[in-house]
Design goal:
alpha/beta, 14 helices, globular, 6-stranded parallel beta sheet, Histone, subunit A, Helix Hairpins
Length: 327
């Protein structure tokens, strides 16, 4: 595919609670931009407070001080529906072409590193590759066999999260170190990939660089500052934004506790609280720590990429983006 002239894309990334969306909105207002969410949970309808949609997205862009900024890849599917990086990549490329076609600037904003990399690096996600890794009990089921995939998933469903993590640590230490270990859905999916393909998730994928130029800007704070931001935001979501009520509503609408817990972090710990497994104080302390640990894993992922420019000062970010778009 030939590289197009109007092909410049801004990426604002970083760990949770760093104010990425607010920066993205300001840039969109300044540079005729539209935002593409790169958050693996914001794609689900009804999961608003726990994923930061209400505070960090819709409320921000509807403030009187901002023009309404179009926002893509939020509320894409029901939380009862499975969603993965391949689906995200396809929708993201479609959104990019739509935005560029209207002579606007795509601004990808989020903290899901795999989703961002899938778009920037052009991972070829449709094909399953063969591998030297051996998993005899499932070797005959690899490829696109629906029966094989169902058998693998059924077997893994029987395992506890602790058992899944123990297996993942043995076969894919890289993914084990960066994955959200409270998110059963992601841990199990990593194991499914290994058993379906014979390759650890971290083994790499074929790439075909997309015809775009990317400027990747990372936002982060010192650990103590970020910890304070995480705790303040969690208190606000619990005490003012109705996080517990949101999880109750999702359960009433038919999401099982197990499904809610599979989304990790806020949904996992609040679900345990609502089931009476833990008290409120334990929920808050455990969830606050889980979010801090998650932010560290996000940084582990992002720090591998030397192309990311780390900057917390908005004025400097705006200047860098302006120079990039003019070049």
């Amino acid at each position: 595919m030939e590289e197009r002239r109007d092909n410049k894309i801004i990426v604002i990334l970083g760990p949770t609670a760093t104010g990425k969306t607010a920066v993205g909105v300001k840039l969109a207002r300044k540079f005729q931009g539209e935002i593409i969410s790169a958050d693996s949970r914001q794609v689900y309808r009804g999961m608003d407070v726990g994923t930061g949609k209400d505070k960090d997205s819709y409320k921000v862009i509807k403030l009187k001080s901002y023009k309404v900024i179009p926002y893509h890849l939020i509320d894409v599917v029901s939380p009862k529906t499975e969603f993965n990086v391949a689906k995200y990549q396809k929708l993201a490329y479609a959104a990019i072409e739509d935005i560029l076609g209207r002579e606007k600037t795509p601004i990808i904003v989020g903290g899901t590193g795999l989703y961002i990399d899938a778009v920037v690096e052009g991972y070829e996600l449709a094909q399953v590759q063969s591998s030297k890794f051996k998993t005899p009990q499932y070797s005959s089921m690899r490829g696109t066999s629906a029966r094989g995939k169902q058998k693998i998933r059924k077997d893994l469903n029987k395992l506890s999260l602790k058992q899944l993590l123990a297996r993942l640590k043995k076969v894919d230490l890289v993914t084990y170190k960066i994955i959200d270990r409270q998110n059963r859905r992601r841990v199990q999916r990593a194991m499914e990939i290994y058993y379906e393909t014979g390759r650890p998730k971290s083994a790499g994928l074929k790439k075909q660089k997309p015809p775009y130029q990317f400027l990747k800007i990372g936002i982060n704070y010192q650990r103590e500052v970020l910890a304070g931001r995480i705790e303040r935001r969690l208190k606000e979501r619990l005490e003012k934004e109705g996080l517990v009520a949101e999880v109750k509503r999702l359960h009433r609408q038919g999401l099982s506790w197990r499904r809610l817990e599979s989304f990790g972090l806020e949904y996992a710990w609040v679900s345990q609280y609502l089931q009476g497994k833990i008290d409120y104080e334990t929920m808050f302390i455990s969830l606050n720590k889980a979010i801090r640990d998650f932010s560290k894993r996000q940084m582990t992922w992002f720090k591998r990429d030397r192309a990311v420019v780390w900057e917390a000062d908005y004025g400097k970010i705006e200047k860098r983006v302006g120079n990039f778009l003019k070049s």
